[in-house]
Amino acid sequence: MGSARLPRAITIEDVAERAGVSAKTVSRVLNNEPNVRQNKREMVMQASRDLGYRPNPAARSLAGAKSFLIAHLYDNPAPEYIAAANDGIYAACRANGYFLLPEYVDPKANDRLDRLMNFLMTARADGVILTPPLCDDIEVLNILNQTDTPYASLSATHPSIGRPVINHDERAAARDLVLHLIGLGHREIAMITGPAGHNAARVRELGYIDALQQAGLSPRPDFSERGDYTMRSGIVFGQKLLCLPSRPTAIFAANDDMAVGVLTAAFSLGYQIPNDLSVVGYDDNRLASAVWPPLTTIRQPVAEMGRRAAERLMSPDPLQPDRETLDFKLIIRASTGPVPAYL
Amino acid sequence: MGSARLPRAITIEDVAERAGVSAKTVSRVLNNEPNVRQNKREMVMQASRDLGYRPNPAARSLAGAKSFLIAHLYDNPAPEYIAAANDGIYAACRANGYFLLPEYVDPKANDRLDRLMNFLMTARADGVILTPPLCDDIEVLNILNQTDTPYASLSATHPSIGRPVINHDERAAARDLVLHLIGLGHREIAMITGPAGHNAARVRELGYIDALQQAGLSPRPDFSERGDYTMRSGIVFGQKLLCLPSRPTAIFAANDDMAVGVLTAAFSLGYQIPNDLSVVGYDDNRLASAVWPPLTTIRQPVAEMGRRAAERLMSPDPLQPDRETLDFKLIIRASTGPVPAYL
DNA sequence: CTGAAAGCGCTAACAA
DNA sequence: TTGTTAGCGCTTTCAG
């Protein structure tokens, strides 16, 4: 195998010698600890730079009981979402000298909890970030608590006391989205929800209902289908909804991928969008603005949420405040329009 | 910060004591080294299991000069592709007790080489995997060689002597794709290529030209546009091509994302697909089968390629054979059809 | 404010 | 086949 190392790596001793101080002083300087005279501090910095010194993370970790690793635990419902969150987490980690360790928790694996435990015990990350739906998975949370692992979540609804949660107001966002449809004259609005057990998805349903009720409408049971965030489920349930005896004039898919599926279903059935049907998604991922017609959707700051979550974990005091709520934005594009005149 | 650790972690000494052997023997057993009597081996395994022992990676790394880390260096032209490769790399790593360390090399950052160097020196990964176009980036390769870092590449065209390259025959694949179009009667076939400097993309152009020539056609300069693998560029160049005085009857986009963009461009111009225009992509990513109409494309085994690359790096002898070529497959879907009768 | 000593948990090198 | 002795490079502790 062989690892990546030059003839002989520069150690803290080398820096100490060149700076004319002890190793401990170098350590103090490099870790921004107090109690070092300014001039020594500068000498150390200079020596370190001259030598191109990089602390050995294994040694730091072993001696200091810190790994400089932040793990991102993810399930896999909406790859675009996960990727965006991952990007944000990654950026924050690297900006602070940490490394990102992605770890997939396969929802279909019987031994997923054993694997997770194994991961936590071997990787020994300094913190763990959970993206939905893992952030509401009680079994996972139990293991995290049990192993005493600090963690933060994105869009968690489960009240993990004292753990930072970064989110945005999904209920209000979903409501705004449906109100936009209602403002366009739609009254027959169907929804394709996210998977069961995905609490953030459930919250979007609540927003949908809020909007309907606010307009004096009541949700029709046959206008609600449970998708799984895949494009395929958007196709399947889009078709199902459009084949209903009295079909909806607008469909709210709980994420963009499913909305794209609905587009596909509508086209395959010969419907024009938005002339015959309005479609809205949620997330504003890459697809949303690239498909035809581009999707009206909610832009949620996923990468930013990931960034904040990682920052919280790396900060000296990761708790307080428990929750941080970032802004969302309604993005209106060509997939929505007035109710068809013929209906 | 505080790291994730139980009251007192179980060490190799604990296992040694319980098994009645020395720490070194435990080490031998756990690392599958020879020269341990079978019964002792079993006692150690048992003791290790009883105690729920997990070796401390920092200690292993410090003592053994191995980090158990495989880095994935990526640029960002086609997120789906990168994600798929990453999944394969990740799976292989975890299956072998390694961790995956993703690292983004921002092509727009002036100090990208410094950052890369810094990453390599601090993370000290045991191996590095390059996805295109980084695998053909001379500056990056130089740094890798300079720091003596073992690496493997996906779809590299640059002859990195002695470094494993996992690929598939992109030239043949592109040719097959275009031959499929030609078989359908198309003669006016345009191509939207990948970005300059992306050698794998260049190879696809070669395949396109091969097919044309094989059919006695010659490439038209105005039928070749340089995209950048984004959906947006598919839209832009799709529109441009379709607005040509004598427009193509088929468009080959060098990846699926751009093909989706072409679909969008065609729809926005009022064209039906495949009635008025045939479109083909490359990759067979999630979009390809989810958009309407679903794309005829090439399925390349990206995840598998990532998996193999990682395996090569983790194997005791990472070199030989230099290149591994995996299979591709032509996937025919509804985005291609006969030439419009009216043309 | 600074440094010396000790040790984190493991494996390499050597000895038995 | 096994165990012993030394560190790996850093941070902790504690003395100055």
Characterise this structure:
Two copies of one chain form a homodimer. Chain A has 343 residues and is α/β, with parallel strands linked by helices. Among the domains of chain A are: 45 residues, lambda repressor-like DNA-binding domains (434 Repressor (Amino-terminal Domain)), CATH 1.10.260.40; 132 residues, 3-Layer(aba) Sandwich (Rossmann fold), CATH 3.40.50.2300. Helices cover 43% and strands 14% of the residues of chain A. Chain A is built from 13 helices and twelve strands. In chain A, the strands form three sheets. In chain A, strands 2-1-3-4-5-11 form a six-stranded parallel sheet, with helices on one face. In chain A, strands 7-6-8-9 form a four-stranded parallel sheet, with helices on both faces. A two-stranded antiparallel ribbon of chain A has the order 10-12. In chain A, helix 9 links the parallel strand 6 and strand 7. The N terminus of chain A is likely disordered. At the A-B interface, helix 4, helix 5, strand 2, helix 6 and helix 10 of A face helix 4, helix 5, strand 2, helix 6 and helix 10 of B. Chain A binds a DNA duplex (16 and 16 nucleotides) through helix 2 and helix 4.
